[in-house]
## 1
Amino acid sequence: MYNIDSMYESMADGVVESLKQKKPSRWAVAAAIWLGRQQILSASEFWYQTAGKMLAELSGPDADALRGQLTKAEDALFDGFTNDWPAIPDGLKTYIDQWSPAPAEVDLDALRAEAVVKIDRAAEAYRMQFITPGFGQIMAYQQKLDEARAKVAFAGVPDADIPHIVAEAEADGMTKAEKAHQIVDTFTGWQHISAGVEAKRMAAKKAIAAAETAQAITAAAEVNWSAE
């Protein structure tokens, strides 16, 4: 970062940025001329070339107001200016580049660990769209499935052995056989969903482990769980 107390450093940064974007403005022209007059960073020629190119790109009141403040030497320099956008001198570029230090190195191992946790949580959250969470609820699901399978396998199973099927069939206005088949079919569909989620979860973890950059790790952790 440049020094806030140094007016010319922030001006130089702004002018160079305008040059890089090839976006002339009255501010950039005025700043470049001032930098050239003060011989800032020993780059007067560059500042004047930049000002001349930008001024040539401007028109109307802004350009007229700026030209009205030029010295005779500057007016002669900018008159009929046809040069292309100037290259930034190496010394100036090195000086300015130090204001934007390289970002801190990313800890890829830590990023991988975070990505794995993200994958596991996302997979579980997607599964929870289809089932009710909780240990007791899981036990109830398993009990109902066992009862449903027993009913499908043997239609004459005593009602006392399938209390969940009896209760749900009555609540839903279905026969016990219909309810049993519904539960078994639902579980079969859930198995397909769960298997797909698990395949994507493991594939994502494999991709995370193989990724060699932060961008690749982040991309590997983005999974579309609903896609077939």
## 2
Amino acid sequence: MKLHRYILVFMDVFLVVLCFFLALFLRFEGDIPVEYANNYVTLVPVIIGISGVTFVVVDLYNRLWEYASIKELVAIVKAVSISIGIMIIAIYFLNLGKLPRSVYIIAWLLGIFFIGSSRLWWRMTREYLMSRKSLKRVCIVGTSDEAVRAAHLVKSDLVGFVDDDKRNVGTSIMGFPVLGTTSRIAQVINAYNIDEVIVARIMKSSGLRTLIHTCKDLKVVVKVIQQSNGGMIPKLRQVNLEDLLGRAPAALDMDSIAGYIANRTVLVTGAGGSIGSELCRQIARYNPQKLLALDCSENNLFELEIGLRTMFPALSLEAILLDVKDLNRLDDCLRIYRPQVVFHAAAYKHVPMMERFPSQAWDNNVIGTNNLLTCVQKIEVERFILISTDKAVDPANAMGASKRLGEMLVMQANSSNPGKYSAVRFGNVLGSRGSVIPIFQKQIENGGPITVTDPEMTRFFMTIPEAVQLVIQAGALAKGGEIFVLDMGDPVNILELAEDLVRLSGLTPGEDIEIQITGSRPGEKMDEELFTSEEQLDQTTHGRIFVSRNGHFNRFEVERLTQRFFGERAVSSISDFKAKGSK
């Protein structure tokens, strides 16, 4: 047997010997007669030998007592009963010195109790030591209701809170102190040996970035609290890139959105893409009469259809494999389904690729948009919303120029039709295919290096769900002819973004992952803008949606952009736009 089993045998035998003494003591109420005391002393070697051998033979020690349960208690009762039974027989036949019969009964009860209690003590001690070993010391950032909910999740590990408001320092929440201010998080971590920091409030990106850097330097884990879909049970998760944007969830006017989507046939082009697929998911929640999901990629369309039918089994869905460049088939399709609301998200958007193949940007983003506008005007669509981009502002590349031309076509269509035709312009979205973030993430997975074109370059970012929410909300605000501009927050430095992604992966930029500066590519701007110098923005009724006052068709601008980025072949075709739009 192993050493710890010898220790257990010794302990159990000692307990049995003690039980017999206590049984005598209880039987005679502390006044043990000399005769029985002498007999007890004589029987001690017998008790030791029989109990020790019996406990080993009945397999009392080939068990994991750390997980002691009812089965182990039954084994103890069996072992004690057999050992005392053998003692009674041996003492009777060998005439070794008798004890009162009640002493055996009391010793049997005490033996079961003491040996069973020793196993329970063994298990409880191990669990306590293990819990102490795995115990975390947690600090929560924030003192709001979210912080209280986070506290309930980690109450056994919680040390206290930190908050931006100095007046809260020294107070307590749920009996736990506010230890200091967020700006002194490093001192709090060191003073109270904090292992984990939970962020339970919206923080500005700069503040959260500083917090993450500080905690990483001190080897402290950072998590955030996240509501589940039902909003009732909060969960803790790792910090992700969306948190670094520091944006609170967008407030939506659900009634106004449902007012133009519910019980209507809604078409989404580019439905298999990042924006298009999210549009479909969010539109489906507003009970459209029918959702038309149109895309030219069979794989994207197939995956979208499977996902939508799983998420929304009652949704009337039509997945349409079609290219917006195919005017005749597009016209036939729209005459059949006659959508009342159209979200046009189909577009080529990869800047360097479109610089290499500007004719594709023209055919897809300009001709495709014009084709769609030609068709929807014939069926007198109620609303048309073009998904545009910040690269359409003073475009420096073919992709941006093609989207600006698309805006111009929408403005032209609005001027000659009863429906409401508008565009929504916003910057980069996190996770969009072909954007910089998935590229950086792939480079990190491959061990680097990360390639950044210029250390001073900045871009606007928002999450895909937020962008789509605001697009749908803008559709409710549309009166026709607007270019809506979404509030993207502050521009993000691309180099800092790359460094943040490295840190969120648990690595150190410059050490674990190299960052290389490659120089700007053709068509890239250092900084993007959301509106031109000629445009003036007005606030709408929604705090994150603005509208350009100068949204109108400008033939001079159309000709200039077409000549500059797409050449003579394209210039010769723009004369057809106005005629097509009026049909």
